[in-house]
Amino acid sequence: MNDHLVQASGLSYRYPDGTQALQEVSFRIGQGEAVAVIGGNGAGKSTLLLHLNGSLQAATGEVRIGDLKVAIATLPQIRSRVGMLFQDPDDQLFMGSVYDDVAFGPRNQGLPENEVAVHVHAALATVGASHLADRPPYRLSGGEKRAVAIAGVLAMAPAILVMDEPSDGLDPAARRRLINLLRSFTHTRIIATHDLDLVLDLCSRVLVMNRGCIEADGKPETIFADTELLARSQLEPPLSWQRRPEHG
Amino acid sequence: MSRFDDTLHDLHALDSHAARPNALTRLDPRSKILATLFYIVAVVSFDRYAILALLPLAWYPVALAALGNVPPAALGRKLLLALPFALMIGIFNPLLDTAPMVDLFGISISAGWVSFASILLRFALTVSAALLLVATTGFDQVCVGLNRLGVPRALTTQLHLLHRYAEVLAGEAARMVTARELRAYARRRLNLNVYASLLGHLLLRALERAQRIHLAMLARGFDDEVRGSQELGWRRVDMAFLTICAASFILARSIDLPRALGHILLKALS
């Protein structure tokens, strides 16, 4: 069976304080797709992502990863299939050294220490952070922290990568490296972001969220050309798009 | 703000000594933890007016600092940070215990001052021993060692995360203080209302961060156990280290070495 599929049907979620964060959200994301989730602040992007690895449980509706329904009983399998990259890398890097942090997931998966080492070194090499292995995470720069956080997720060998604002707080060079890195992956990628230029560079499909609903689902070129839709969803066309010399 | 930051940096700099390998960092963390524990018990168990009798025990922090290449200045700065606590504990002794005790060059010193000095000396000895334990072992390894010694995992995980996030939280506090200062203009003093609100916000932020960290841990398969990397190995050198330390502490505790030395000197002179 295909582990790379992500399927949500009729997903609704209301926070305990009464905010309706998701309403009847349905979509199906296929193997190897790179999908952006965009929308204004409070549109429900983060809430949606938290459902994909079972951090939040659907009140109504369901999420399926491959053939597995996200539920308490399936959480261990779900979480080794879905790698989650959080918005603030400081939330994710809690071990004393970069090596130990990247090893955190594989060790929890119960791998023997020699296999853990193989996974950790491979993951660090992929993100170009092998030289940081012995450093404490709190001494790293923002871009390095992000790279190490990604390595921590990759080391668990997930089929699906879910990322919340991956380019947030990166300088242009670090952002470019990140985009190239993400583009080289064959995982199914789901990226919530305000960085619409990143979407243009990376994603073949865009989900536009507005007030907990999926407002539109289509190719980036179609979505970004629909100025009315963008305005309604508190968005603008990507900057590189705005600079296009349309009027000669 | 910058001074605040420097202090924070200092706290974490202590850990980085453990990254440079030397004879002490290679010891099993458990032997160093137990030695430190014995040491603290030995220092604390002295009579409340003991000063000179405590001095031989100073060999332990001095030797550890020397072997572990921990600069005394760095250690001193951290001792100063903790000093207010010791001062608070001892400050009333001179006021409450005014009976004259020692006559030093014609000046009579009350028992309160003697016990105050004793408290400060014990503080310096025990706190530097604890700091040196961290400096020569690394905080993570201390946690692993504590765990192996039977300290509940919930507690060592807490310690571990506290150490990791102290800097992040203090950074948030520092940013809040700066934000207040930028809008406070001439009003330098922090009034109580503002202070309460700052603290409340800090607590809420800490709770939120704790929640996010927990989510991130769960996302990577956390099941209430932080698994360390290094297999601990208790070797003969660990046993030797612990035995030497414990024996010297017992010796210093049971024989008043400075007094004995004084007697011998006096006898030799007479």
Distance between the termini of chain A: 52 Å
Integer-rounded radius of gyration of chain A: 18 Å
In which range does the helix fraction of chain A lie?
25-40%
Largest interface, C-beta within 8 A = A-B, 33 and 30 residues
**What composes the largest sheet of chain B?**
2 strands, antiparallel
For the largest beta sheet of chain A, what order do the strands appear in spatially? 6-7-8-3-9-10
Assign the CATH architecture of the domain at 6-89 and 160-242 in chain A. Answer: 3-Layer(aba) Sandwich
Structure description:
The complex is a heterodimer of chains A (248) and B (270). Chain A is an alpha/beta fold and 248 residues long. Chain A is 38% helix and 23% strand. Chain A has a domain at 6-89 and 160-242: P-loop containing nucleotide triphosphate hydrolases (Rossmann fold, 3-Layer(aba) Sandwich). Chain A has a six-stranded mixed sheet, sandwiched between helices. The longest helix of chain A has 14 residues, at 113-126. Chain B has 270 residues and is mostly helical. Chain B has a domain at 152-225. Chain B has a two-stranded antiparallel sheet. In chain B, a hairpin with a 2-residue loop joins strand 1 and strand 2. Chain B is flat and about 75 Å long. Chain B starts with a helix and ends with a helix. The mean pLDDT of chain B is 83.
Quick structural overview:
Chain A has helices at residues 45-52, 75-81, 89-92, 98-108, 113-126, 142-154, 172-184, 196-202, 220-225, 227-232, 239-242, and strands at residues 6-14, 20-29, 34-38, 60-65, 68-69, 82-85, 160-164, 188-192, 205-210, 213-218. With 248 residues, chain A is α/β, with parallel strands linked by helices. Chain B contains 11 helices and 2 strands, in the order αααααββαααααα.
Main attributes?
heterodimer; A: 248 residues; alpha/beta; Rossmann fold; six-stranded mixed sheet; four-stranded antiparallel sheet; 38% helix; B: 270 residues; mainly alpha; two-stranded antiparallel sheet; flat
